[in-house]
Amino acid sequence: MSGAGAPGFMLAPGTARPIKPRRGTMTGAAVVLLAAITVWAGIGVQVDLPAIAANWRNATSNIVQLLQPDYGFFPKTVPALLETLQMAVIATAVGAAISLPLAFLASRATNPKPKLLAGVRFVMNMVRSVPDILYAAILVAVVGVGALSGIMALVLFNIGIIVKLVSESLDGEDLGAQEAALATGGSWPKANRVAMLPQILPSFASQVLYTFELNIRASTVIGLVGAGGLGILIDNVRSFFRYHELSLIILEILVLVLVLESASSWLRKKLV
Amino acid sequence: MATSTTEQPRTSRPVKPTSRLRTTLWLLVSLIIVAAFWSVKIKWSSLADFPAQLVKYVSLMLLPPDWSQFGEAFNATILSVQMAWIGTVLGIIISFPLSFLASKGLAPRAVNAPLRFIFAVIRAVPEVVIAILILSVTGLTPFTGALALAVGSIGTLGKWGYEAFEGVDPGPKEAVRSTGGGTLALIRWGVWPSAAPDVFSFWLYRFEINVRASAILGLIGAGGIGKMLQDNVQFRNWDAVGMLLIVVIAVTMGIDQISGAVRNKLIHGRWRAPRLAS
Amino acid sequence: MERTGADIRFHDVSVTYPNGFTGLKDINLNIPAGEMVGIVGLSGAGKSTLVRTINGLVPITSGQITVGEHQLNGRGSAQLRGRELRELRSNVGMVFQSFNLAKRTTVINNVLMGRLYHSPAWRTLLGAWRDDDVELAMSALERVEIVSKAYEKASSLSGGQQQRVAIARTLAQRPMVILADEPVASLDPPTSHVVMRDLQRINAELGITVVVNLHFLDLARRYSDRLIGLRSGEVVFDGAGADADESVFENIYGRSLTAEDVLSSKGTL
Questions:
Q1: Chains touching A (3+ CB pairs < 8 Å)
Q2: Do A184 and C96 touch (CB under 8 A)?
Q3: B14 contacts in C (CB within 8 Å)?
């Protein structure tokens, strides 16, 4: 006790001091629960570190191949690359056009009909819970192999994201202008158009650009089930273990995504 | 009013301005969209059959779904969720210290910059591609999938982490510095308390993303939803796909509910599941 | 077609909110066309409720209100709804305490909101307003002397300018009544006088009936023909501004006056 500060600074032990609240048991229970889930999941996915060590030697040759992209393969990738871009652009445009009115229906602030609101929100939650690849697999069966099925899958994926984000920003908007527009004798749709739309337009544009970035990445993947784009090519070279070519494709995706991401984030800053 | 309007002087009225940049941007964007529609190789006529085809396949899948496949669909979905969990946990363990090192003010610039670049590169690569890369090391197991998700998680969690750490209120940071605390004390008492709720909620959000992403990994053999999907689509067992669809939607919505409730608790201090509908 | 003001009649009007709170109790009022009426009272006395019943933003529980040819009824009788309600609202302009502009769009777009009722849905959707409507909006901006800002973003304007844009928005409606709910509560004293003078001028020149809620007693006395005092949802004073002395206000407020009840720095009426 001695030496703690100046003499007289330490007062006599007070009886009024509170006892440290015991939050320990809750935290402890949470840690135990999380650890248990992790062990359960670990058993499920068969965590096997020795196997990695054993495989490491065969892997090195693959990795060496991956580090040497086969640039001669480039001309053959161009059509798929273009298709990926086309799919991403079209899906973003269509998705955005469908999402905007749906977002107004999915926000408490702009939809005065509780039943319609609940219905739209429930359907949107469902649309959002299906992985894009599942949409792609089903749509390939319905409309056939190619870009169209991929675009449709991406559109569904985009609607899920944009409607959620934009309706949330509508929920957070100040409702003053809308009240004023209703007070001039405007109907709800008209009031939403003139009072709410201008308010969320910058955030809508920014969400659309964000989904465009996601689409570039996703459109490279959904080709794995035949939905067009670079994915089909990845599937081909992968099945024949042509790592030099795979490596070029990955490099292309990397460059494409990084370039488009920086372009889109530049645009987003201009807009907001 | 009407009679008085014509008497008002009109000379002082401003002219409607036009923004050159805005017009150019709009033209450019429209041009890109038109070009994409015009050049893409799609038989647009097949859209005409689409509604009929959709009804056909949806009824094949759901009227009725193959209930005997419920067990398999459930197991496949659970395996994907387990992959997502392990991927998230590993991603957190690796990204957590890295995001401190990537924060300006908590580590030297020379450390910040390369880490941020690595995060950006990882974010650019789809999880499937990461999985294909890792596949060559570990062979084909669900663990491969989990590792791919872990690596993918590092990109986003790392970025969100350093953004949260850099965004904390400078007040507590200065307070810790003024008592003579070092960098570790600064992190523990000046940064972590304010950033913690956000960081926890990022972890949950990334788990939700991983649950969806893990479905894709099955396509290259990592097991789970993707594998069952591929097996059944191949043999056109549509009622089994329908069963899988139902289970996936139910489990994903359930997980989103739980994760949303935990997030509400962390941020608003209240347990409340996000309402499904209203 | 020259428009003039409409008269407003309250007949045994009561408002009870869903939580059981009584907003208004048996209000009987007769406001002739072209009058400028100030409403004073403590916050919670029912000023805001009274004003908002006139354009149906707050539905009345019992009694009836007539505004010109329109009639609003209490629960149980025929309700004004849909197009009929919107027609009433198109004839009644409203000015709010916090201006309620769409801040991210231009001033002229905000004023054009006053033409919503008369514009077809497709024009509203595309933002393709009729030339007549744009002309009306421009001349409304000229009347509040702010037309030079027409193409600026509403958010770039000062509070006083924003409130004048809001007044122009009501003028673009070519209304018969203008309601103002604490229009100067967010403004500094000199700007408050500018906005109040605008309302007074509009009332005098165009013959529009103006009902304005005011917190500051001196402003209310100075700018209105007639003062109505509300206390706990009931009318406790109704007369000329000149007749409202300090004892009247003490009755309305249920306490003696303080410096916060008047705008002028002298702290008295």
A1: B, C
A2: no
A3: 147-151
Q: What are phi and psi of B81, to 5 degrees?
A: -65, -40
Q: Which of A165, A139, A154, A145 is nearest to A94 (CA)?
A: A154
Q: Where are the domains of chain B?
A: 63-268
Supply the DSSP symbol for B274: P
Distances (CA, A) of A199 to A169, C40, C111, C153: 9, 34, 16, 12
Strands (E) in C48-169, as ranges, are 62-67, 70-73, 92-95
Paired strand residues for C70: C67
Q: Can you say whether residue C145 is alpha, beta or left, with left for phi > 0 and alpha for psi between -120 and 50 degrees?
A: left
Neighbours of C60 (CB within 10 A): 26
Parse chain A into domains and list their residue ranges.
25-64, 70-271
**C102 to A177: CB separation less than 8 angstroms, yes or no:** yes
Which subunits sit against B, judged by 3+ Cβ pairs under 8 A?
A, C
Residues whose CB falls within 8 Å of the CB of residue C62, separated by 6 or more in sequence, listed in order: C12, C13, C14, C74, C75, C76
**Cβ neighbours for A166, distance < 8 A, ≥ 6 positions apart:** A99, A100, A103, A107, A200, A203, A204, A207
H or E stretch covering C23: strand C22-31
SS3 C179: strand
Nearest partner of B104 among B96, B93, B112, B116, judged by Cα: B112
- Note which residues in 106-145 of chain B have CB less than 8 A from chain C: none
Q: How far is C21 from chain A (nearest CA, A)?
A: 22
Q: Which residues contact C182 (CB under 8 A, 6 or more apart)?
A: C47, C48, C96, C97, C213, C214, C215
H or E stretch covering C240? strand C234-240
Distance (Å, whole) CA A191 – CA A110: 9
Q: Is the peptide bond before A112 cis (omega within 30 degrees of 0)?
A: no
Complex-level ipTM = 0.87
β-pair type (C209-213, C36-40): parallel
pLDDT digits (tens, 9 = 90+) for A91-117: 999 999 999 999 999 998 888 888 999
User: Which residues share a beta bridge with C209?
Assistant: C177
Handedness of CA A120, A123, A127, A129 (dihedral sign): positive
Residue A2 pLDDT: 43
Of C139, C151, C206, the CB nearest to B8: C139
A70-271: CATH topology is MetI-like fold (1.10.3720)
Are B240 and B248 a contacting pair, CB within 8 Å?
Answer: no
Distant-in-sequence, close-in-space partners of C216: CB < 8 Å, separation ≥ 6: C184, C192, C261, C262, C263
Give me the pLDDT at residue A62, please. 73
Q: How far apart, in whole angstroms, are the C-alpha atoms of residue B4 and residue C135?
A: 12
pLDDT in tens, C236-266: 888 887 777 777 777 777 777 777 777 776 6
B21 in contact with A, Cβ within 8 Å? yes
C215 touches C253 (CB < 8 A):
no
Alpha carbon C120 to chain centroid, angstroms: 26
Unique residue bearing structure tokens 């000023």:
C47
- Rounded to 5°, angle at Cα B91 from B109 and B184: 45
Return the SS3 of C46: coil
CA C48 to chain centre: 9
Residues 6+ positions from C135 with CB-CB distance below 8 Å: B5
Order of strands across the sheet with C92-95?
C92-95, C177-181, C209-213, C36-40, C226-231, C234-240
Distance between start and end Cα atoms, chain A:
58
Q: How far separated are the first and last CA of chain C, in Å rounded? A: 42
CATH number of B63-268: 1.10.3720.10
For C221-245, letters b (16+ CB in 10 Å) and e give bbbbebbbbbbebebbbeeebeebe
- Average pLDDT of chain B is 82
